[in-house]
Amino acid sequence: MNRIACAEFSDDLLRELAFSADLIRQSTGDGLIALDRLHRIVYWSTVMEQISGLSRTEVLGGDVFEVFPFLTAIGEDRQWRAALEGKVATSRDKEYSVPQSQRAGVFDAHYLPLRSSDGSIVGAVAVVRDVSERKRAEQRIGEIERRFHIMADAAPVLLWMANTSGLCTFFNQSWLDFTGRTQQDEWGVGWAEGVHFEDLQHCLDTYTDAFNTRQVFEMEYRLRRHDGEYRWVLDRGTPRYEPDGAFAGYIGSCIDITDRKASEAELRRTLRAREEFLGLVSHELRTPITALQLQLERLQRAGLSAMAASQQEIVGRIGANTERLAHLVESVLHVCRIESGKLQLQVVEFDLALLARATLDELRPAADRKRLELRLRAAPDLPPLHSDAELLRLVLTNLLMNAVKFTDRGHVELMLGATAGAHTLAVCDTGRGIAREHHARVFGVFEQLEDSRQKHTPGVGLGLALVKAMTSALGGNVSLESELGRGSVFTVSVPSSGPARSGLRAARPG
What we know:
The chain is an alpha+beta fold and 510 residues long. Helix content is 42%, strand content 26%.
């Protein structure tokens, strides 16, 4: 084929085409093709060879519509003819197929007339760009978006998306079903029409502040349902980003928390009722118990030794039951304070060994009645402990009373030690023991085990639950080692330097 297929083309014009094609190839990777007025190919750039898979020698001089029949099939012949008539034309996303090289894809093209130095039209030129990879990427993105929409519409939560301007551009079917509105109704800021007027400003301020700082946000507001009822929703939004790190907008989800809000309100009412109950217990139960204890003390001072043995036994039982009742009332009050977060810690420095001895002395009469030996074994040079002394005394009291209660013979031993950053208190007994399958249950509130440990032993199951709650409030933990018939070891570990933060702490027992 001749290099020049039309006499109207000059060497200068072809050189200019070659120079322009080289610039295009270097800057954009676009191909360049030129035709004469008879539709014969007179120029074929290197990039066109790469796109089509055909070399210059295979196409130069040939009729472009015969070499590439697909051009006529897709209507691209009209673009070429328009350029030959002096017009500029553009095509987007056109599919091509070259059977000779088995190449196929998608291209964009820009057509314009080619003029000689005197201004006459001598042909047409097209700048061609292969956009196959871009189209494949768009198709992949489109498929991902379709899958996302399918998944989003099937989700039981309300989902929304916003673009980089902050306008919402998508709501899933669950949202639309909830509000009874369409995508067009909710688009942009239309969704705000369903927000309760008392919550709207706070809702918009929270969203705008988070959007401007690209922060995750969470807010509660009332949203009108399709039946006109306002329901509380928890809305959580998260910024989203493109693979290159560019900000792409927000995606968020809403869940209906109306029932939870109602439960919280009911809980607050319950807590208020419990506070009233605590006040009643403090006054109505503590007062007569204290009066009874004072009367018993007076009776003892009046001459208990002069009483008959049977009378002394009765007075002793009354005293023991009164102490037990007082302890039960205090346990209930402590459980309630801990659960409601009303427990105030008073962290001080004190000698744990002195506290342990004083606690053992208080419980010695109960141990003596059962002929049990109380032992104390403290590590030498035990460092001072920073904690709530009164709360730790209650922990020790409950563990020791529990050990005495369930030990029929032998001894109860309290061992004190210190490790790196913690003080330990272990209460060991030679009592009935606890089966392994019941270890987790013993710390539950009002938990009573149906085995030999509990048989014929009165109690309501608050002691160990209280121990766990108070130990947790002190920043520590309690553990149990026991086997049925082989005694028990309860070990408490608390931070030597005190809880992580003192003051109000809420720790649910059990």
